[in-house]
Amino acid sequence: MTRRVTILGATGSIGQNTIDLIARDQGRFSVVALTGGQNIARLAADARALRAELAVTADPALLGPLREALAGSDVEAAAGPEALVEAARRPADWIMSAIVGAAGLQPGLAALEQGTVLALANKETLVTAGPLVMRTAAAHGATILPVDSEHSAVFQAMLGEDMSSVERIILTASGGAFRDWPLEQLPEATLAQASTHPNWDMGQRITIDSASMFNKALEVIEAKEFFDIAPERIEVLIHPESMIHAVVGHIDGGMLAHLGAPDMRHAIGYALNHPERAPLPVERLELAKLGQLTFRAPDPARYPALDLARQVMARGGLSGAVFNAAKEKALDLFIAGQVRFTEMADLVKFALDQADTHSGLIDAEISLDNILKADHFARCQAEAAMAQRQR
Ligand code: NAD
Ligand code: MG
Q1: Which of 27, 74, 179, 236 has an alpha carbon 20 to 30 Å from 167's alpha carbon atom?
Q2: Ligand 1 atom 9: the closest Cα is on which residue?
Q3: How far is CA 23 from the centre of its chain?
Q4: Which CATH number fits domain 316-390: 1.10.1200.10, 1.10.1740.10, 3.30.420.40, 3.30.530.20?
Q5: Ligand 2 centre and the CA of 150: distance in Å?
Q6: Nearest to residue 110, comparing CAs of 126, 89, 134?
Q7: Residues whose CB falls within 8 Å of the CB of residue 367, separated by 6 or more in sequence, listed in order
Q8: Residue 76: C-alpha distances to residues 33, 48, 97 (Å)
Q9: Which ligand is closest in space to the CA of residue 81?
Q10: What is the ipTM of this complex?
């Protein structure tokens, strides 16, 4: 029987890697829906090639061009945020959540509400709404499989183990584009420099977040929410080669590491074939050729985002939604050339501090409405912080 699959964020880096795997094995899969943003040509070409039932662009203004690009095919076209949620509601056996940012939350929740398997690349879903997401999955009998490479690695290293035997989880980080820069040069880092990753080929936003380690900060929170583990048991380790994706330390002192080439098709393919394993077209590591793997502790002065994540986990409530939204806004401003690389953390800290003084906002029930309010508040605060600096 073919597996009915949907890819939310099909035109992005994770989406295209998912399509690469599905296209190699078309007999096993039938594609329900593909969604994208501005890249209509890519979306339409993939929808045609994979004979998708539906293609959706997030931008309502692009419905016309999408219809044109799909003319003569059997693929339905739709556009806008509501249509994205509708796409996630279409019955499917497996749904990839690979939209970037908080925009992935509502389609992800809609997918969970149909009780399906959600392959979760969109870490923002768990950072902004962890308890709501886990509750929704449980209520509808849905399964969440982590696709973030570190979380997939932890998941695999824990197979057959009980969470009560886990003492610590170590998430590795490459250290990003500026790991070896002199600290005093960081304020001068350009957009082009921040958009280059030493090991992984990913979307621009997560690549910049890797340079600032906001990505790892999000991942620590993601790990806490997904594995339900105390924050002090989650560690971050710089491992410049990106061959070990995570390590799980057990109460008897044994540590299980997950190794592989830095290629997202491993974590995606693992989730796609779960609970079985299938051959994947990823490079096999030759450890003797590598010779050595290296590790070091992250420097808090270089990566202030890691401390901010600790504050968020200690504060709880809706502070994850504030953190993520302020980070998204700060990143928008950096990409637009309006703040320096090192100012992003200052903007996020300002938003978190402001949210802390509006405790009603942070301590409100973790519902979609309140998450959207906290998100909006945080973006406004990050923007206000920037305006203050420029005065
Ligand atoms: P990307 O920028 O390459 O692709 C993002 C996708 O989302 C595109 O299809 C785009 O059209 C769509 N999109 C963008 N804004 C949207 C909006 N407002 N509404 C609906 N759709 C929108 O991003 P990516 O690197 O593939 O990352 C996707 C997600 O996976 C992110 O949450 C990221 O943190 C996570 N992730 C990515 C990688 C990686 O290797 N790229 C690794 C781990 C986790
Ligand atoms: Mg990751």
Answers
A1: 179
A2: 9
A3: 23
A4: 1.10.1740.10
A5: 5
A6: 89
A7: 132
A8: 9, 10, 20
A9: 1
A10: 0.99
Residue closest to 142 by CA, chosen among 116, 119, 109, 121: 116
Substitution site in 20, 86, 99, 245 for ligand 1 pocket (most atoms within 8 Å of beta carbon): 99
Among protein residues, the one with the nearest Cα to ligand 1's atom 41 is 202
Query: What pairing do the DSSP bridges indicate for beta strands 117-120 and 143-146?
Result: parallel
Residue 11: CA count within 13 A, CB half-sphere: 16
Task: Please tell me whether 12 is known to bind a ligand.
Answer: yes
Let me know how long the chain is.
391
pTM above 0.95, yes or no: yes
Helical (H) or strand (E) element with 36? strand 29-36
324 is in an annotated binding site: no
32 lines ligand 1 (CB under 6 A): no
Specify the fold of 3-146. Answer: Rossmann fold (3.40.50)
Ligand 1 atom at shortest distance from the alpha carbon of 215: 34
Ligand 2 mean position, distance from CA 258 (Å): 13
Say which ligand is closest to the CA of 199.
Answer: 1
Residues 6+ apart with CB under 8 A from 198: 174, 175, 176, 177, 179, 240, 242
pLDDT digits (tens, 9 = 90+) for 127-139: 999 999 999 999 9
List the domain boundaries for the chain.
Answer: 3-146, 151-290, 316-390
Q: Which stretches within the chain are classed as H helix?
A: 13-23, 40-49, 63-69, 81-89, 105-113, 124-140, 149-157, 191-194, 204-212, 214-227, 265-273, 287-290, 304-315, 319-335, 343-357, 359-362, 368-390
81, 309, 383, 38: CA torsion to nearest 10:
-30
Say if residue 391's pLDDT is above 70. no
The CB of 122 under 6 Å from ligand 1? The reply is yes
d(CA 209, CA 175): 10
Q: Determine the distance separating the centroid of ligand 2 and the alpha carbon of 147, expressed in angstroms.
A: 8
Q: Whose CA is nearest to atom 18 of ligand 1?
A: 103
122 labeled part of a ligand binding site: yes
Indicate whether residue 13 lines ligand 1 (CB < 6 A): yes
Give per-residue pLDDT as tens, 362-383.
999 999 999 999 999 999 999 9
Indicate the helix (H) or strand (E) that contains 33. Answer: strand 29-36
